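User: Sequence in, structure out. Go.
Assistant: Echoing your sequence, followed by the structure tokens.
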Amino acid sequence: MRTIRQQIIELLQQRPMVVREISQETGIMEKEVFDHLEHIRFSVKAAGKRLNIEPAVCLDCNYSFKDRKRIKHPGRCPKCKGTHIRKPEYSIANISL
């Protein structure tokens, strides 16, 4: 039997996913997914992989949250103050040398 984190890692190696999709696939709450992603970010590094984050984007003004370091998605855009934001996508890939 695999742990939740092992399940998430396996899912993210197959294709990019948003938190809602991860939550539905694993049967855990979205809030819990963020905690697991924080740990996965460090644990996959030891295996020569990394957690990639396709940044969130404001759908009103196209502002990209590319410099954001937090795993959790933003609530509002700092540029236009809009809340219509495309959620970030997460994936796991090999670290290229």
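User: And one key feature?
Assistant: The chain has one domain: 4-94.
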